[in-house]
Write a structure and sequence with these properties.
- There is one protein chain.
- With 165 residues, the chain is of the alpha+beta class.
- The protein has one domain (9-160): 2-Layer Sandwich (Muramoyl-pentapeptide Carboxypeptidase, domain 2), CATH 3.30.1380.
- The protein has helices at 56-74, 89-94, 121-130, and strands at 14-19, 23-29, 81-84, 109-113, 135-138, 142-146, 158-160.
- The strands form two sheets. A five-stranded mixed beta sheet has the order 3-4-6-5-7, with helices on one face. A two-stranded antiparallel sheet has the order 1-2.
């Protein structure tokens, strides 16, 4: 087994993306990627398992692009808050209105809290779309982004919610 950087085992470790002109830009806490409750506690069913998928780097790269765009547009060197990423089968079933075939169960989706930023959900959704996300949903609490189309789990790109169009 390869050596694992011990800090990656700490759920409170902040993952940072490097932005050479501006230094380090905080992005998210590692525990935000695991299956967790609304209070950010580990899931009572899977105890906070983290799923690594082949598309994981692509998902993180798009998220990084979104964080850089956020910093350029707002002038604020700040990260984003992931409300939900991976969800185990049992936890997903307990989430109101969650699809039984949710892309979250495959580790290919993020729910991003807009209240953590100074942007509206629509502004954040447009930023996600510009970062390459082809499936974006707008909600009053924030946005949902996923790569379900690229993973072969969804029939195609999609936008839903109030896009003001």
């Amino acid at each position: 087994m390869p050596d694992i950087d011990k800090k990656l085992l700490n759920p409170n470790y902040r993952v940072r993306f490097i932005n050479p002109p501006d230094g380090e830009v905080p992005s998210f806490f590692l525990h935000e990627l695991r299956c967790h409750t609304k209070e950010m506690d580990p899931c009572p069913h899977c105890h906070g398992s983290v799923v690594v998928i082949p598309y994981g780097l692509e998902l993180l790269n798009r998220l990084r692009t979104m964080v850089y765009s956020y910093n350029e547009n707002t002038g604020m060197p700040r990260g984003i808050k992931l409300n939900r990423s991976y969800s185990c089968e049992k936890h997903n079933a307990e989430i109101p209105n969650a699809s039984p075939n949710s892309v979250h169960k495959w580790g290919g989706a993020y729910d991003i809290d807009s209240s953590y930023s100074n942007m509206t959900s629509l502004e954040m959704a447009r930023m996600a779309e510009a970062a390459g996300f082809q499936r974006v949903g707008v909600y009053d609490w924030g946005i949902h982004v996923d790569i379900g189309y690229e993973m072969g789990l969804r029939p195609g790109p999609a936008k839903w919610g109030d896009w003001g169009e």
